[in-house]
């Protein structure tokens, strides 16, 4: 199969199952910008994934050749299909393919949902396969693409229970404590909240270091599970 044929197959599927009511329903979750979608249900996306898996004709090159065709429209489901295709060939990926994955942030990873799928599910799987390691994310921390930067703390949530030193993770992620973007603040706050659940002492020491300089949204997320008295310790000094 050629990339153009796969692209047309997936786009036709989106058009066939388009539902404007679902677009309206889900748009409230995407406050950072316009939610441009066809309105497919999760069941419809899963059904197409199963069909693609059963056909068994995907190759790594076919997936990466099809990706920019799907992403150029900006439609939510078309980019979702890129991530689905990647998941179906993940066992065939090589270390060299990490650069092609990074390119997707430039091409069309433009919302929190797609970034968080990569960080919560896909990238941790690649770490298990030894295709990418912690140090490989160093360039991601300074990426010009905010959703690539967000992916780092979201991915590192999976490292919190692996025995890695928390101080090491905090030092690695520290540049993001002054990131200008709201979506990155959310990712950092989420990571720190999960870190606090496992090791409150070390996490609180880090939060105290940054309480007067880092964006408050990070602390809103990071302190979410604390009691009222503990939260008060992390208010910015007047």
Which properties best describe this structure?
single chain, 238 residues, mainly alpha, 14 helices, 0% strand, globular
Q: What's the quick description here?
A:
It is built from 14 helices and no strands.
Count of β-strands: 0
Gyration radius, to the nearest Å?
Answer: 19 Å
Number of helices: 14
| Residues in helices, as a percent range | 55-70%
| Terminal-residue CA separation | 63 Å
Largest sheet, if any?
A: none
- What's the mean pLDDT score? 95
Question: β content, as a range?
Answer: under 5%
Note the run of SSEs as H and E: HHHHHHHHHHHHHH
Shape: globular
Quaternary structure = single chain
Structural class: mainly alpha
* Low-pLDDT regions: none
What does this structure look like?
It contains 14 helices and no strands. With 238 residues, the protein is mostly helical. α1 packs across α4, α5 runs parallel beside α7 and α11 (182-198) packs parallel to α13 (216-222). The longest helix has 17 residues, at 112-128. The chain is globular.
């Amino acid at each position: 199969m050629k990339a153009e044929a796969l692209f047309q197959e997936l786009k036709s599927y989106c058009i066939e199952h388009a539902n404007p009511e679902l677009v309206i329903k889900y748009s409230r979750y995407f406050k950072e910008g316009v939610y441009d979608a066809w309105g497919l249900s999760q069941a419809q996306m899963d059904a197409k994934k199963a069909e693609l898996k059963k056909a068994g004709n995907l190759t790594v090159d076919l997936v990466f050749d099809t990706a920019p065709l799907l992403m150029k429209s900006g439609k939510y489901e078309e980019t979702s299909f890129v991530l689905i295709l990647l998941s179906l060939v993940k066992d065939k990926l090589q270390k060299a393919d990490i650069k092609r994955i990074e390119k997707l942030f430039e091409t069309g990873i433009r919302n929190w949902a797609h970034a968080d799928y990569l960080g919560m599910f896909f990238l941790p799987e690649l770490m298990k396969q030894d295709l990418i390691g912690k140090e490989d994310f160093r360039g991601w921390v300074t990426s010009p693409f905010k959703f690539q930067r967000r992916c780092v703390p979201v991915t590192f949530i999976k490292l919190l229970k692996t025995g890695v030193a928390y101080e090491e993770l905090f030092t690695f992620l520290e540049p993001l404590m002054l990131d200008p973007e709201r979506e990155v603040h959310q990712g950092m706050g989420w990571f720190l909240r999960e870190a606090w659940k496992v090791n409150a002492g070390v996490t609180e020491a880090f939060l105290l270091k940054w309480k007067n300089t880092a964006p408050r949204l990070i602390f809103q997320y990071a302190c979410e599970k604390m009691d009222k008295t503990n939260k008060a310790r992390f208010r910015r000094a007047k």
